[in-house]
Specification:
By secondary structure, this protein is of the alpha+beta class. The protein folds into two domains: 235 residues, Pyrimidine Nucleoside Phosphorylase, Chain A, domain 2; 90 residues, Pyrimidine nucleoside phosphorylase-like, C-terminal domain (Aldehyde Oxidoreductase, domain 3). The chain has 16 helices and 15 strands. The strands form five sheets. Strands 3-6-7-15 form a four-stranded mixed sheet, sandwiched between helices. The chain binds uracil. Uracil binds next to helix 9.
Length: 451
């Protein structure tokens, strides 16, 4: 406390004036910050009083020094309180959402959410854009001409009331702190931090008015956390934060050692979502989407049990009810639902470059981070905050792990509109594929469940 003279010679203790630089140093030195210090940083960064360069330094200090459980909780709450919370208590039924910690080709939200909504669950979904080498639901949806993800709280509520499912991004109104921090982390190499991921996800989810949450915590070469041990810690942390806030949170640790499905890139992934919702999708994507949807249905209504929820989710996919639900939601948010049947209405790349196998054998490994990074180089993601993305570009895999390929056979195709970084992307993708004479062991898709 600094005592300063104030009026009539009386002395008042004024609050100690915090300085951002001192807080950066404190975290850099591995000390624990107080709730007030964390609130100061988040509040002042959100209103523009702390510049990006200081916040970037703070994020890097967190990356190296970590945060305690108390600090992560304080960060989550400060981010949550940076904007409004959506009150959905007057909507009938349980509100359950799903969120992934980030993967390559990970489009399950766009399949699991319509299945759960078709089952009667209210799904309020606040998502993010692409982050690092991973894609984001908001960017994928915005590749649909006219689709609006910038909604007011009132529009979000009205859409949920009418359709049981609504997608939106962080805005100046809801979790503005995550909107700014997320974009800054994306371009300052501070994404892969367990506490920053936990606070980012949980602040968004707590703001949207959900009662329950299914988390898809990715593990492997395409995930931010490569090892199961770290992913488990992240899952446990988010389940704990949820519990402290009286929310039911179930976390699945799932394999991200190769891209999910075949398509990586925004409009390309919308096409694969459409195929999957019409029962023509890749096996891994279909299986995981059904499992996540079943968990959402089960959280909303545990009575009939998980196996019954799985059967219901599969039936809603097979009957086309989930496909119709996605069409309905696209139309409600300003997009053209015909894109799901007429792919020429989506942005299409002008060039295609095939990557061929140098030898025959089995695909034993596909480094998913390199595939995601190649898509970013083609323009599917950002390397500066204001770089516009190209919704049309990306990678379509022709072979997945365990499949055979002949020498000169196609491994994948790069779709591009600007060839400035095409060679670099092609090199990355070529190196991402490992081909051997012996078939690899099959990996499980769901590795662990934490609840
Ligand atoms: N998803 C988020 O919303 N935030 C992260 O930091 C990572 C994945």
């Amino acid at each position: 406390m600094i005592a300063r003279p104030f009026g009539g010679g009386k002395e008042f203790a004024l609050p100690f004036q915090m300085r951002t630089v001192d807080l950066i140093r404190k975290k850099r030195n591995g000390e624990e910050l107080t709730d007030k210090e964390i609130e100061f940083l988040v509040e002042n960064y959100t209103r523009g009083a702390i510049p990006d360069y200081q916040m970037a330094a703070f994020l890097m200090a967190v990356y190296y020094s970590n945060l305690s459980e108390n600090e992560v909780t304080a960060l989550t709450l400060a981010m949550l309180n940076s904007g409004r919370r959506v009150d959905l208590s007057d909507l009938d039924g349980a509100k359950v959402d799903k969120h992934s910690t980030g993967g390559v080709g990970d489009k399950t939200s766009l399949i699991a959410a319509p299945i759960a909504a078709a089952a009667g669950v209210v799904v309020p979904m606040i998502s993010g854009r692409g982050l690092g080498h991973t894609g984001g639901t908001v960017d994928k949806l915005e590749s649909i001409p006219g689709f609006r993800t910038r909604l007011s709280v009132e529009e979000f509520r009205a859409n949920l009331n009418a359709h049981r499912l609504c997608f939106m991004g962080q805005t100046d109104e809801i979790v503005p702190a995550d909107q700014k921090l997320y974009a800054l982390r994306d371009v300052t190499a501070s994404v892969e931090s367990l506490p920053l991921i936990a606070a980012s996800i949980m602040s968004k989810k707590l703001a949207e008015g959900m009662d329950g949450l299914v988390l898809d915590v990715k593990v492997g070469s395409g995930a931010f956390l490569k090892r199961q041990l770290e992913a488990r810690k992240l899952a446990q942390l988010m389940v704990t934060i949820g519990r402290r806030m009286n929310k039911r949170v179930h976390a699945l640790l799932t394999d991200m050692d190769q891209p999910l499905g075949y398509a990586v890139g925004n409009a390309l992934e919308i096409m694969e979502v459409s195929q999957t919702l019409q029962s023509q999708g890749p096996a891994d994507l279909t299986q995981l989407s059904i499992e996540l949807a079943a968990r959402m249905i089960n959280l909303a209504n545990p009575g009939p049990g998980l196996e019954a929820a799985r059967e219901q989710a599969s039936a809603l996919l097979a009957s086309g009810a989930a496909f119709t639900k996605l069409q309905e939601v696209i139309a409600a948010q300003g997009g053209n639902p015909d894109v799901l049947n007429q792919f020429e209405l989506l942005p299409n790349a002008s060039g295609a470059r095939e990557i061929l196998s140098p030898r025959s054998g089995y695909v034993t490994r596909i480094n998913a981070e390199d595939i995601g990074q190649a898509a970013v180089l083609l323009g599917a993601g950002r390397d500066t905050i204001d770089r516009p993305i190209d919704p049309a570009v990306g990678v379509i895999l022709e072979r997945k792990v365990g499949e055979k390929v002949a020498a000169g056979g196609r491994l994948c195709t790069l779709y591009h509109t600007d060839d400035a970084r095409l060679e670099e992307a092609a090199q990355l993708v070529e190196d991402a594929f490992h081909i051997s004479a012996a078939a690899p062991e099959q990996r499980q898709l769901v590795l662990e469940v934490i609840q």
